[in-house]
């Protein structure tokens, strides 16, 4: 796609991409798989410098709850700019900040808002995660953290060490329940029960080698881990076992929050109230903003115990207030639940038609398709549900061995989608999951267009794979696939 744009627009497009490749870090990621140059955007649609238009189901990795340049967000930003108010004020009180906190607290799970404190952490979600871990360690006097396999909480593991502070956080990984690749080989409620028992045993066994931790951090739906929703019963079990042992539960709602999963916060599906919530992405209305909200009795910090230069971003707070209010007042979480269910139901047919689609899963407008190699040795029968999270299964699903993940096929689907004007992301343990994160404002007609383009892309890849067989000559990593 990047090589054929004609005329002056194409020259601008190619020149910018060439300079990016020459000057930016090798750590760049999205730009490698998505060689486009956005110049205009509105709602679901992006226009590139080459004149091509795309349906954007990446949404800034879930940041754009209302899509690009929503009118209520633009108006909120203009009001602050036109008012002459300062744009960055550290942690000083302002009317803009007060309005944001008031709207945020209005949306919080029952049992938290009335006794909550909020800490503005800095521009990115990873800063909020660092703050949450720091908070529970200070509040409990303990050091270890429980986390889960497949989790993604940010990129700043070395931040404390680089700042000359303590870096002795010990993380114990626990099994995260899922159906398709259940760590216990059973899936369904039985697999979730075994995962919960494993956690409980590790905490209660004096010889487990894991002392009582400072906290447990989890994602109600693992995003980068492959769009894996946690079972509601399992999440309630985690809440219970942490509560009775006085272990603070940290819910990472950075990607799942603000209506994305079909509830305002993903923990609302299970009815639990975490002790700490880590929030970013959509709460800033497309601008950088990150906070933690937590029980007031955990607030043992001394003044200056956690700070940051850019925690007073007034434009982000104004945009965030407008976004939170618009989602709440217009029932966009319920809309995401209904539309997401329909999209999942239609996409499930792909797993029935094409052996290279291992599973379709998700919650609300957080959707994933796992691409697999159906011709690999040892692959088992494709029995059982291919869309296990459309409805909760009443009985454990039959034991089965999933096909090996295929990052090559997933990357091929992403490229075919881009050729058809559809932007999607890859994720999962092996970068084999095609992810959809459309804005909550997507219309029925746009959803149909997204499904049509994605289906066409999967079909093209599946037909080519069947005709050519599995690739023999390469197993490229992300850097090698880039240009």
How would you describe what is shown here?
The chain has 483 residues and is an alpha/beta fold. The protein folds into two domains: 213 residues, Aspartate Aminotransferase, domain 1 (Alpha-Beta Complex), CATH 3.90.1150.10; 258 residues, Type I PLP-dependent aspartate aminotransferase-like (Major domain) (Aspartate Aminotransferase, domain 2, 3-Layer(aba) Sandwich), CATH 3.40.640. 37% of the residues lie in helices and 15% in strands. It is built from 14 helices and 17 strands. The strands form four sheets. The protein has a seven-stranded mixed sheet. Helix 4 runs antiparallel to helix 10, helix 11 runs parallel beside helix 13 and helix 12 crosses helix 13. The radius of gyration is 23 Å and the shape is globular. The protein starts with 6 loop residues before the first helix and ends with a helix. The N terminus and C terminus are likely disordered.
Averaged pLDDT: 88
Low-confidence stretches: 1-5, 158-166, 378-399, 472-483
* Fraction of residues in H or I helices: 25-40%
* Strand residues, percent: 5-15%
Radius of gyration, CA atoms, in whole angstroms: 23 Å
Number of helices: 14
Write the CATH homologous superfamily of the largest domain. Answer: Type I PLP-dependent aspartate aminotransferase-like (Major domain)
Distance between the termini: 12 Å
Biased composition (Pro residues): 395-405
Pathway: Amine and polyamine biosynthesis; ectoine biosynthesis; L-ectoine from L-aspartate 4-semialdehyde: step 1/3
Protein name: Diaminobutyrate--2-oxoglutarate transaminase
Keywords: Aminotransferase, Pyridoxal phosphate, Transferase
């Amino acid at each position: 796609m990047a090589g054929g744009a004609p005329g002056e627009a194409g020259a601008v497009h190619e020149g910018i991409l060439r300079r990016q490749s020459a000057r930016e870090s090798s750590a760049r990621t999205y730009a490698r798989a998505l060689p486009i140059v956005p110049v205009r955007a509105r709602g679901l649609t992006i226009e590139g410098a080459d004149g091509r238009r795309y349906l954007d189901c990446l949404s800034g990795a879930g940041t754009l709850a209302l899509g690009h340049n929503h009118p209520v967000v633009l108006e909120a930003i203009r009001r602050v700019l036109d008012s002459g108010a300062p744009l960055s004020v550290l942690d000083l009180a302002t009317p803009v900040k007060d309005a944001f906190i008031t709207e945020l607290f209005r949306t919080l799970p029952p049992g938290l808002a009335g006794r909550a404190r909020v800490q503005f952490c800095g521009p990115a979600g990873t800063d909020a995660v660092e703050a949450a871990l720091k908070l529970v360690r200070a509040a409990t006097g303990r050091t270890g953290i429980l986390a889960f396999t497949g989790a993604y909480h940010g990129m700043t593991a070395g931040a404390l060490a680089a700042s000359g502070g303590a870096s002795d956080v010990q993380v114990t990984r626990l099994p995260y329940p899922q159906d398709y690749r259940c760590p216990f080989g059973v899936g369904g409620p039985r697999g979730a029960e075994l995962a919960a028992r494993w956690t409980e045993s590790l905490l209660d066994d004096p010889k487990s080698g894991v002392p009582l931790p400072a906290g447990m951090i989890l994602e109600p739906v693992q995003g980068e881990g492959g769009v894996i929703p946690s079972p509601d019963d399992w999440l309630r079990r985690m809440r219970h076992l942490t509560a009775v042992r006085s272990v603070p539960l940290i819910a990472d709602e950075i990607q799942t929050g603000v209506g994305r999963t079909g509830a305002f916060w993903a923990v609302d599906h299970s009815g639990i109230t975490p002790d700490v919530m880590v929030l970013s992405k959509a709460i800033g209305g497309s601008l950088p903003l990150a906070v933690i909200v937590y029980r007031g009795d955990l607030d043992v910090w001394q003044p200056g115990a956690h700070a940051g230069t850019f925690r007073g971003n007034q434009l982000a707070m104004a945009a965030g207030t407008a976004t939170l209010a618009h989602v709440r007042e217009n029932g966009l979480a319920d809309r995401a639940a209904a539309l997401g269910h329909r999209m999942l139901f239609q996409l499930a047919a792909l797993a029935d038609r094409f052996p290279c689609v291992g599973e379709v899963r998700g919650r609300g407008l957080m959707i994933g398709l796992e691409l697999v190699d159906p011709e690999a040795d040892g692959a088992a029968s494709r029995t059982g549900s291919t869309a296990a999270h459309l409805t909760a299964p009443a009985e454990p699903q039959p034991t089965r061995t999933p096909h090996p993940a295929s990052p090559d096929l997933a990357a091929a689907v992403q490229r075919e989608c881009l050729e058809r004007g559809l932007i999607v992301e890859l994720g999962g343990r092996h970068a084999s999951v095609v992810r959809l994160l459309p804005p909550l404002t997507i219309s029925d007609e746009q959803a149909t267009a997204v499904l049509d383009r994605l289906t066409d892309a999967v079909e093209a890849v599946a037909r080519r794979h069947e005709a050519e067989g599995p690739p023999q000559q390469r197993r490229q990593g992300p850097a090698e696939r880039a240009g």
